[in-house]
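Support request, priority: normal
Reporter: lab tech (M.K.)
Component: structure prediction queue

Hi team, I submitted a job for NAD(P)-dependent dehydrogenase (Short-subunit alcohol dehydrogenase family) from Sphingomonas jejuensis yesterday, and the status page still shows it as pending. I've pasted the exact input below so you can check whether something in the sequence is tripping the parser. The sequence length should be 237 residues. Please let me know if I need to resubmit or if it's stuck on your end.
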Amino acid sequence: MVSRLDGKAAIVTGAAGGIGAAIVARLAEAGARLALIDRTAPAAPPAGAMTLLADLGKPEAVDEAFARAVDGLDAIDILVNVAGIMIFKPVEDQTAEDWHRLLAVNLVAPALLTGHALRRMPSGGAIVNVASVHARRTTALVSSYAASKAALVSLTRSTAIEGRARGIRCNAVLPGAIDTPLLHESPAIKSGAEVLDPADVGDTRDVAEAVLFLVSDAARFVTGEDVVVDNGRMARL
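Reply from support: The job had stalled in the queue. We restarted it manually and it finished. Here are the results:
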């Protein structure tokens, strides 16, 4: 089945770069109408897309961005939560401020946006949360990030349960090593402590294709799932 989204209204956070930008491009190709939310403006947004600047670490900014997006699109059929930050520190060095800042963006913002979406989406709506393989298996120095992504997967399941009666689906995508600036900022990668087989490093488009499937009618019977996109690397660890 060809995944088409003609006329569907989609909100994507973290839309300015990396995985978010790839998702935006793929949804636009499939015919979606888009509202893009990020702290910085996308370099080359699709024609006709709305661009909304917002610091999703602030609950009031989350509420305002959602309201403006829905007003501009006059609907919401799809929500893709991509925005996230990462802190590279040992557990003992992470402060309360570190935890609050990271969780505000990686967990609270998606939760608030999900709540807004559930109140406004019609039957047939779809939510996708971009989590990480760190939700299942992780490494040193990223405890807060891994914890937030595990919680995001749990939020996905709860949303699927609560959305089912209204015909709203929710799934998560767990990318592995994807060729983005965030991957190359990893201290383990920089130091050479972790060496990746090039075959295990994916393209942002690999994640975008998974997201497109999950928000489309092709996945109408799929909800509450967390789909790993890592070329089988985690299965071999």
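The chain has one domain: 9-177+204-229. The longest helix spans residues 96-120. Let us know if anything else looks off. Ticket resolved.
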